[in-house]
Amino acid sequence: MPPAEHPEFVGLIEALRAAQETITGARPPEDVARKARENLEEITRLLSPFTVGESEQLTGQMRGLPGRAQALAPAFHVDVEGNDRVSGRVVFGRFYLGGNGAAHGGSLPLLFDEVLGRLANTGGRSPSRTAYLHVNYRKITPVGPELRVEAHFDREEGRKRYLVGTIRDPEGEITADAEGLFVALRPGQP
Ligand SMILES: CCCCC/C=C\C/C=C\C/C=C\C/C=C\CCCC(=O)SCCNC(=O)CCNC(=O)[C@H](O)C(C)(C)COP(=O)(O)OP(=O)(O)OC[C@H]1O[C@@H](n2cnc3c(N)ncnc32)[C@H](O)[C@@H]1OP(=O)(O)O
């Protein structure tokens, strides 16, 4: 479903990402922390009557939106997308901080799975699933600045799709690269 059909929900996910960022970086006094918790609990009360099954939920389904409206992975902004390659930008915000200004090591596979997985399933190809993801951490991936992300198909062998990707810092140096194997699902395979 196009994001234009659910503009308020799109705004809600943006607000959720902003809240994740702010909460992660905050050291509030106790009374402010309590008030923030109460507000979050109110949001849960407000939305829980509208819980739906996986096929009806909006998060993860909005392909036209950076991050597909899924607040788990950092939002990937696509600049150029073809059948065999994609490039774009990402910011690892404070929410993804591991330590000493570096993005958490687990957040990089999240981003690579999203970018490579999305590419593996585009261009009229049948759905595929990540079989492995090999991530090389070359330098720290900094929290804060905008980083360039590029990915392309390396090769295909039958049902096996091999894709590679890189993340570059503002100086153009590769902070991490990855190779992923995506296996096309057989008809009817769950
Ligand atoms: C979750 C569904 C994803 C589908 C999405 C589709 C559309 C969605 C729409 C939009 C998408 C937009 C963005 C997508 C963004 C992200 C996508 C993320 C994708 C994921 O995040 S998804 C979750 C994590 N993922 C799993 O939850 C996988 C669990 N797992 C399995 O579901 C099976 O394991 C499977 C299917 C992988 C293979 O099982 P299988 O029975 O179908 O095939 P089989 O085992 O026969 O392997 C066939 C050939 O691949 C070789 N092979 C297999 N595995 C290998 C390995 N690890 N290393 C080296 N070679 C390997 C064999 O050696 C053989 O090679 P050969 O043919 O040469 O002998």
From TrEMBL:
Residue ranges of domain Thioesterase in the record: 100-172
Matches recorded under Pfam families: 4HBT
Membrane topology qualifier: Peripheral membrane protein
InterPro entries, sorted: HotDog_dom_sf, THEM4/THEM5_acyl-CoA_thioest, Thioestr_dom
Top-level division of the source organism's lineage: Bacteria
Keywords: Apoptosis, Cell membrane, Cell projection, Cytoplasm, Fatty acid metabolism, Hydrolase, Lipid metabolism, Membrane, Transit peptide
Cleavable signal peptide: none
A GO cellular component annotation in the UniProt record: cytoplasm
This protein's record includes keyword Glycoprotein: no
Reactions catalysed according to its record: (9Z)-octadecenoyl-CoA + H2O = (9Z)-octadecenoate + CoA + H(+); dodecanoyl-CoA + H2O = dodecanoate + CoA + H(+); tetradecanoyl-CoA + H2O = tetradecanoate + CoA + H(+); octanoyl-CoA + H2O = octanoate + CoA + H(+)
Gene Ontology molecular function: any one: hydrolase activity
CDD domains in the cross-refs: PaaI_thioesterase
Biological process according to GO: fatty acid metabolic process
Subcellular location: Cell projection, Ruffle membrane; Cytoplasm; Membrane
Enzyme Commission designation: 3.1.2.2
Top enzyme category: hydrolase
Family that this chain belongs to: Belongs to the THEM4/THEM5 thioesterase family.
Name by which UniProt lists this protein: Acyl-coenzyme A thioesterase THEM4
UniProt organism field: Frankia alni (strain DSM 45986 / CECT 9034 / ACN14a)
